[in-house]
């Protein structure tokens, strides 16, 4: 699958933000904890959501779309799990099944999860945290076998503030009698959204939005209805797209307070915004100046936006330094960008220097992963001439019907099978 883009156009109008990919996936996994019906609103129609729904169906859940962006699920008859190894390997979020399956069924065997090739992504934080609550982890020829040996509430100290490890431990702790304290927990907005959903199932959680979570487990969960938060990364994507293309866009249905550091960084470069409660309007951009960023856990600049800043740097005056402190495999898009005429030097696996402003030229390039793919798509919108992005289906993992939405604001883009 590929996108064909004729670039150089100035975009205009409004573009809405979908529900958060990183929030809905752990929430879908958490519906396994309860036997009651759960209704989720503001669910994005992306391939990672479809994959998670397929995994839950394999577990015996009755799960289906009941609206354009609504999913209804009931795990009352879930009783076993036949691992679809291909599906597990296809996306990283399958690791979020560890906590719910241990809590509900007592065991799970899972192969090494897949996902984007962005560098080393060990599972140590997951296993160490789950073991501190009494789970047993064994490496097998099939992957990893986890069993609920003797679960007991207690204190879990994470050596790193891993988002998905925090989520797995939070889901397991929710079903353990007594009080569990999770220290050095991640507190990204999507972690907070999972915690809020769990409270709607009847779990008591204190410290939501901080690095220490205190969980009072329950024996029986209720059902719940929950609306997924807006996608922070998608909002940041559209912000940078507007600035990079010189377009006065309005991003609607977002949560600006989830982007405080991103907005402050862009403002320091010369960008100007009108910020509402659920919207951000980009004033007609002037020339932006160079910058220096490093990616950090929330509330810092998220690693998922690193490549977007790389594209933006090609349109800024001077040389910008971009440092991805988390992953060493996220600079692959730079070579594709250089093919289009960018002036960039990869200093080491974590750092790149990009000089601008540079006029990009259309070219045939490859979508290396989800975030690199959407970044190169924006490069195609900037470039003069025609850009072809191969392996475009990777972008569908996190962006719903992206070409249709971009067409509405003036982009010349088509999808070809």
Structure, described:
This protein has 417 residues and is an alpha/beta fold. The chain has 13 helices and 24 strands. It has helices at residues 21-30, 47-58, 85-90, 98-105, 124-132, 163-173, 189-200, 232-244, 260-268, 306-313, 333-339, 370-382, 402-407, and strands at residues 2-6, 13-16, 37-41, 62-67, 70-74, 107-110, 135-140, 143-148, 155-157, 179-183, 204-206, 212-216, 224-227, 249-252, 273-275, 279-282, 288-289, 292-294, 316-323, 343-348, 351-356, 364-366, 386-390, 412-416. Strands 17, 18, 19, 20 and 21 form a 5-stranded mixed beta sheet that branches. A 4-stranded mixed beta sheet has the order 22-23-1-24. β11 (204-206) and β12 form a beta hairpin. Residues 116-120 have low confidence and may be disordered.
Question: Using only CA atoms, what is the Rg?
Answer: 21 Å
What helical percentage do the residues reach?
25-40%
Backbone structural class: alpha/beta
Query: Would you report the number of β strands?
Result: 24
Q: What is the number of helical segments per DSSP (H or I, 4+ residues)?
A: 13
Q: How far is the N terminus from the C terminus?
A: 4 Å
Backbone shape = globular
Stretches where pLDDT is under 50 for at least 5 consecutive residues are: 116-120
Write down the overall mean pLDDT: 93
Largest sheet: 5 strands, mixed
β-sheet strand percentage: 25-35%
